[in-house]
Amino acid sequence: MGNLPVHRVSQIKPFGRAGVDFAGPFEVKSAMLRKIKITKAYICIFICMATTAVHIELVSDLSTTMFISALSRFISRRGRCSDIHSDCGTNFVGTQKYLQNIDHLLRHDTFVNHLTSHQITWHFNPPAAPHMGGLWEAAVKSTKTLLHRITNGRVLTYEELNTVLHQVEATLNSRPLSAMSADPNDFKTLTAGHFLTMEPLVPIPSIPTTTSSRHNLTVTPRNRWALIQQIQNHFWNRWHREYLHTLQERPKWNRATLNIRLGALVILREPTPPLTWKTARVIEIFPGPDGVVRVAKVRTANGKLFTRPVVKLCPLPL
């Protein structure tokens, strides 16, 4: 397993770099009437690459206009982000049309012009590489799990579903980033909500303070800003001390392997029966900053070009 990208271990503002993914469709209705028409809605999930904070937007369809509206709401509430990362895959047969719609949406000229006006750089993961977007894939899984437990399969109105999603967002941003300390007087653990509102979005009940302690907590307007800066620095210090070291654990891919070579003959691993897998020739490799090749472009016997992660390529011993 390689080192984490720099933006995963850098001290940047929340949602300075974000990942985005879609989930759905979910059934919704316009009103609580018996014979009302049921329509579809989708969830657009943004996740901060540094603090793992989650932002959820509900959209009525996968059109370019709806997604630009969701992105504008996200920027208005969380601030402009410099880079956005997302998947880019259309190879799964069962959901090919859904993923093609997303791919077309993200590459539409109107959307590209909107990104340019906000000075946002968009980064696409190679196709068939969901493990490269594990951060937002985990956020999608947690969101869908909580949503299923809350709704229990009931069809909600658009406003009800939007309210539930905001509650799910608050719950996800109140999850501990690290284990609780052994200090019996420490009742708070670091969460993503601390970087957004300086407290968990779903906080535990606070311990009442005594009269004498309240008199000692006087804050004048002159040093109010210094107090806020001190609190923010405290959260980032805890992020470095308690959370950052947990990202150093590497439970898989512990053995180093040789980089794939140009001209190598490989087999493309696809979500189809192995007897239908195609052979291809590596025509271009894309090494990372550490020199490790994780993505390659191959050409099949019929001349088609594919960009795939190396974990989807099986070199033949020739």
From TrEMBL:
GO process terms (BP): DNA integration
Residue spans crossing the bilayer: 41-59
Annotated GO MF terms: nucleic acid binding
Domain of life: Eukaryota
One Pfam family in the UniProt entry: DUF5641
Domain Integrase catalytic: 10-192
Keywords, comma-separated and alphabetical: Membrane, Transmembrane, Transmembrane helix
Name the UniProt record assigns to this protein: Integrase catalytic domain-containing protein
